[in-house]
Amino acid sequence: MRIPMVNLRWTLDQTQKAWRENLERMHERSHYILGPEVAAFEPEFAAALDAKHAVGVSNGTTAIELCLREANVKGEVITSALTAPFTGVAIQAAGATPIFADVDPETLLIDPKSAEKRIGKRTAALLPVHLHGQPCDLNHWRILARAAAVPLVQDACQAHGATWKGKPFSSYSPYVAYSFYPTKNLGCLGDGGAVVTSSPRIDQRLRQLRDGGRKNGEQVARITGINARLDEMQACYLRAFLPQLRAWNEQRAKLAALYDEAFANCGAVRPVRRLTGGVVHLYVIRVRKRDPLRQHLAGLGIATAIHYAVPLHLHPAFASAKQKRGDLLNAERAAREIVSLPLWPGMTEAAIGEVSQAVKKFVGD
Ligand SMILES: Cc1ncc(COP(=O)(O)O)c(C=O)c1O
Questions:
Q1: CATH 3.90.1150.10 residue ranges in the chain?
Q2: How far apart are CA 304 and CA 302, in angstroms?
Q3: How high is the pLDDT of residue 342?
Q4: What is the DSSP letter of 185?
Q5: Which atom of ligand 1 is nearest to the CA of 307?
Q6: Mind listing the pLDDT tens digit for each residue in 311-323?
Q7: Are residues 109 and 129 in contact, defined by beta-carbon separation less than 8 angstroms?
Q8: For 264, left (φ over 0), alpha (ψ -120 to 50), or beta?
Q9: Is the beta carbon of 249 within 6 A of some atom in ligand 1?
Q10: Based on the number of CB atoms within 10 Å of its own CB, is 224 exposed (0-12), middle (13-18) or buried (19 or more)?
Q11: In DSSP terms, which residues pair with 100 in a beta bridge?
Q12: Which of 5, 68, 86 for mutating ligand 1's site (highest number of atoms within 8 Å of CB)?
């Protein structure tokens, strides 16, 4: 595609000196798993998010799974119907059952009122998703979790640097899961993730759980763990990218504002509402003729994507939720209308102009 969804070349070029030096040190040491790069990255990431602890793990899915395992969650976990299937996969991997709540029609974030209706005797955790980089109302979620006496696990896989009411996510609950999938606001060049927590006890337990239940490199598996370690090579890239996170988020916000401006008087294009404290992970619009629009843009060499095309309650793998078409109407409607437009730090204003003009021309405004 002439204009892809994301192009990582610019971020790689910007940080080349740092990651090359980090890689060189790593190869010199010839130590590739749980070494000094991961050990250095973890407090750096925690500090960048105004948190106390971060535990590097193998991806965002295992970050969520480890939070649920740490909290010994076994029953039903209520999460959003509009999220990556991996949110549901993580819940199942922890031995729990995902139950899906509908989304707010404006922000597309999980609606706490819809979740509240589904809280029952079997509910074992609440798992709001900070979708597209936008923050869920964590005050509301904390109240719900306390009333139900269950842990609040946050899927922040798309929301590096986002806050709620000026406070870091980790101040609302001790389980915040991040993904470093390459296209995320902070990504590595493979799979990676982290759990951020304010609790030293949970930090220690997560370290043990990610390393097969072993403690401090001992050869004895003391609790039932999994293998979910972040590797040294990914930490080399993450340490080079992390100092740019704030600037890259600012750049994403500026580019999103240009899209907003271009669509301001275009009734047929409705940008999904963004919130104070959010970061722009994806620029998502709603349009009626979504699929023909995508086809048209592809013909012009402009890539698009859908986050997400099938709400999770309609995936055969999550049938145990016993929810059917028509149960979660906002998510189902959104899934038919949303489309994510190209966006990455380093994308040119001219490219934003080209994409927005092409969209407007097609929808006839
Ligand atoms: C909202 C959300 N949850 C979970 C995940 C899973 O993260 P990963 O792909 O790193 O396992 C992702 C990323 O794909 C995501 O966007």
A1: 244-363
A2: 7
A3: 98
A4: S
A5: 16
A6: 999 999 999 999 9
A7: yes
A8: alpha
A9: no
A10: exposed
A11: 79
A12: 86
3-state secondary structure of 104: coil
Q: φ, ψ for residue 290 (rounded to 5)?
A: -65, -50
SS3 4: coil
Which segments of the chain belong to CATH 3.40.640.10? Answer: 9-243
What is the distance between the alpha carbons of residues 191 and 59, in angstroms, rounded to a whole number?
A: 5
pLDDT > 90? residue 24: yes
Nearest-angstrom CA–CA distance, 271 and 211 = 42
Query: Average model confidence (pLDDT) for the chain?
Result: 97
Distance 250 CA to ligand 1 centre (A): 22
Q: What is the largest CA-CA distance in the chain?
A: 66
Q: What is the pTM of this model?
A: 0.98
Residue 230 has a pLDDT of 98
Ligand 1 within 6 A of 58 CB? Answer: no
86 lines ligand 1 (CB under 6 A): yes
User: Is pLDDT above 90 for 238?
Assistant: yes
The tens digit of pLDDT for each residue in 39-94 reads 999 999 999 999 999 999 999 999 999 999 999 999 999 999 999 999 999 999 99
Q: With bands split at pLDDT 50, 70 and 90, how would you rate the model's confidence at 365?
A: confident
Span 234-255, average pLDDT: 98
From the candidate CATH numbers 3.20.20.140, 3.90.1150.10, 2.60.40.1180, 3.10.560.10, the one assigned to the domain spanning 244-363: 3.90.1150.10
Name which residue sits closest to atom 7 of ligand 1, judged by CA: 60
Task: Convert the pLDDT of each residue in 171-185 to its tens digit.
Answer: 999 999 999 999 999
CATH topology of domain 9-243: Aspartate Aminotransferase; domain 2 (3.40.640)
179 within ligand 1 shell (Cβ under 6 A) = yes
